[in-house]
Amino acid sequence: MITVQRVAKAAGKHLTKAALTLRKALGARATRSCPACGSAVVGFFRYGDNAEWGCPACGASPRERLMNWLVQQGTLDVPTDGAILHMAPNERSLVRRFSSAADYTPADLDPSRYVVADMRRVDLMDFSERDRYDLFYASHVMEHVPDDMAVLRNIYHALKPGGEAWLIVPLWDRPTEDGSFDIPPRERERRFGQWDHVRQYGPDFADRIRAAGFDLEEIDAAAIDTDTRHFHGLDDRLFRARKPGGEPAR
Ligand SMILES: [Zn+2]
């Protein structure tokens, strides 16, 4: 669905991206660095309300940069000997990292939307694998599913003991507001920020993750020191959920 809001966002993105390219061509110093592609960059381009959203070299978002930075820091450990289920694999840098795993499954409800090889169709509402994955990654997926508690429980069962789910969702400061696909698309866009979202999460997303049985660590970019955060343009919050049991977490 094309809306005025989306067109405005896309136009703004294009303009600021062009401005960054021009500044670089005119000799502006590249004083920032993208952890997703390793490029030195002049800055990051605007998308919507976020003035420092995209990497001009690879397109990575603040959350994609955050994930790469956390892996590079050793805060997150990609289980390359194990099995990884990567939902909605839009982020190229993470496809590169995760696909080095012994058993890598990129998946989506609609695999035709992706250029990634060997996509599998997975409906998280109807997902009954057991004790199979070491890592489940889903960025901006949970706000699309009709029943997120059912999906969290499905993810829990699909993970091995000690396995982790790395979840990122759009957040606001207020409590989570749930909707359904019975609400018209226009109203969903107004209430939840996008026509195919059925809820808007708040910080209480954490309570839902714990209610599904997980141990939870929240990694907020806001807690990273200001210089590092600015240098890499890091933003967003990772909900790192761990299924109890197995080897102790590092
Ligand atoms: Zn980049």
TrEMBL record:
Keywords: Transferase. The keyword Transferase applies. Pfam families: Methyltransf_23. InterPro entries: SAM-dependent_MTases_sf. GO terms for molecular function: transferase activity. CDD domains: AdoMet_MTases. Gene3D superfamilies: Vaccinia Virus protein VP39. The keyword tRNA processing does not apply. This is Glycosyl transferase. The lineage of its organism: Bacteria, Pseudomonadati, Pseudomonadota, Alphaproteobacteria, Sphingomonadales.
